[in-house]
Structures are given as C-alpha cells and as structure tokens.
Specification:
With 116 residues, the protein is mostly beta strands. The chain is built from no helices and 11 strands. It has a 6-stranded antiparallel β-sheet, with no helix packed on it. Strands 7-6-9 form a 3-stranded antiparallel β-sheet, with no helix packed on it.
Length: 116
C-alpha cells in the first residue's frame, strides 16, 4: 500500500516531509478553533515543535500554551491532543520515532468529528 504524502482533515491538514528507518517528519496545520482527537500511540513517540502561531498542547493531565520555537515530547502510550484556540493557523513540525509508524497506530479517546 502506498503511503499518503498529504492528507486533508476536518481540523486542517498534515503533510509528510521526510521518512527514514524508524522515523517520520510531518508538517501539521490546525485551523483556527479546531483540534485533533485526544489520542495515544502504542508504537511511537512524537516530538512537536511550533513553527507558526500558538498551540494549546495537552499531554496526559497537563494543558499548556506552546509558542513559536518551543517543543514538547510525547511518549509512547501517552494521551495527547493539539488544539488551536487562536484566530490564525497553527503549524507544527512533528517528528515520529518508533518501531512502527503507520497511520493506524492510533487510539482515539475523544474526537470532535466522531472518528473511531
């Protein structure tokens, strides 16, 4: 199966920038007032760096505002969510590291768009 390079989502989009053995790099844009699902991954960790705008990032029970050039690390199996409470797009660079990086390695706990 061919891997997607770009995917439009109800909350914005993601674009695959680069992939190597055990890692992927994505650009993620979240539209104003939107958020990703509260989720976790069994087989990968993620590093998020804000490159445009101001993101609200939820990791476990902690919720914080993250600004340009700040980053956060999300461990495997840790619940997390990216939110945009501003009036402009938020853009992050996501680096995924792990033994398996498929888009199906996701458990959703809460989703504004009723995805499973």
């Amino acid at each position: 199966m061919k891997e997607e390079k770009r995917s439009e989502r109800p909350w914005g989009l993601w674009e695959l920038l680069f992939a190597g053995d055990g890692f992927k790099v994505k650009r993620i844009i979240v539209k104003p007032g939107q958020r990703l699902s509260l989720q976790s991954h069994e087989k990968r960790a993620e590093h998020w760096t804000v490159v445009r705008g101001e993101a609200t990032i939820v990791i476990g029970d902690k919720k914080e505002e993250v600004h340009y050039n700040q980053s956060r690390y999300i461990e495997k199996k840790q619940k997390h969510r990216l939110e945009n409470h501003t009036k402009a797009d938020v853009e992050i660079i996501e680096v995924q590291c792990g033994e398996y990086l498929g888009e199906d390695d996701i458990t959703r706990y809460s989703d504004d768009y009723n995805r499973k």
